[in-house]
C-alpha cells in the first residue's frame, strides 16, 4: 500500500525554480540599491562566508538579523555541519499575501485533503491503493 507522503510528492504543489542567483547578480542588485560599487559588495559577500566559518569553527553561532542564524553541530560520527535557521522576517516575507511571484506547479492542489490525494493516486495506481 502506498503512503500519503508518496501521493503528496507526486501530486502536491511544487515550486518551479529559476536558475540560482550567482554572486555577481546579487552584487549588481545590492550595488544598485545601496550606492556601493559592485566590487565592494562582492568583497563583503565573500567575507560573510569566511566570517561564518571562522566563528562556527570556534563553536560560536552567527546571527544576521533579518537573515538568520548559522550554528555549528556535530553528528554521532564526529562530522561537523553548519545548520541554518532562517529569521522569522524572511519566512514572513515570503509568506506575505502576493509576495511570491514565481511559478507553482499544481497550484490548484494547494490545500487538497488526504481524500483528494487518495482519489488522484488510486486513479493512476489501482494495484497500489493509497493508505490514509
What does this structure look like?
The chain is of the alpha+beta class and 132 residues long. Helices cover 45% and strands 20% of the residues. Helix 1 packs across helix 5 (114-124). The N and C termini lie close together (10 Å).
Short description:
This protein has 132 residues and is of the alpha+beta class. It has a domain at 1-18 and 102-132.
- Kindly state the mean pLDDT as a whole number? 96
Radius of gyration: 21 Å
Say how many strands there are. 7
**Structural class, from helix and strand content?**
alpha+beta
Write the layout of secondary structure elements.
Blueprint: E1 2-3, H1 4-11, E2 14-16, H2 23-34, H3 38-57, E3 62-64, E4 68-74, E5 80-86, H4 88-95, E6 103-105, H5 114-124, E7 130-131
Parallel strand pairs: 1-7
Antiparallel strand pairs: 2-6, 3-4, 4-5
Helix pairs in contact: 1-5, 2-3
Amino acid at each position: 500500500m502506498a503512503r500519503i507522503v508518496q501521493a503528496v510528492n507526486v501530486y502536491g504543489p511544487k515550486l518551479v525554480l529559476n536558475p540560482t542567483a550567482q554572486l555577481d547578480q546579487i552584487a549588481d542588485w545590492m550595488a544598485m540599491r545601496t550606492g556601493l560599487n559592485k566590487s565592494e559588495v562582492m568583497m563583503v559577500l565573500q567575507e560573510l562566508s569566511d566570517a561564518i566559518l571562522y566563528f562556527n569553527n570556534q563553536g560560536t553561532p552567527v546571527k544576521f538579523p533579518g537573515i538568520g542564524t548559522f550554528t555549528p553541530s556535530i553528528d554521532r560520527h564526529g562530522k561537523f555541519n553548519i545548520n541554518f535557521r532562517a529569521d522569522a522576517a524572511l519566512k514572513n516575507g515570503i509568506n506575505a499575501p502576493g509576495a511570491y511571484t514565481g511559478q507553482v506547479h499544481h497550484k490548484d492542489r494547494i490545500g487538497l485533503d488526504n481524500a483528494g490525494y487518495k482519489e488522484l493516486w488510486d486513479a493512476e495506481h489501482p494495484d497500489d491503493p493509497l493508505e490514509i
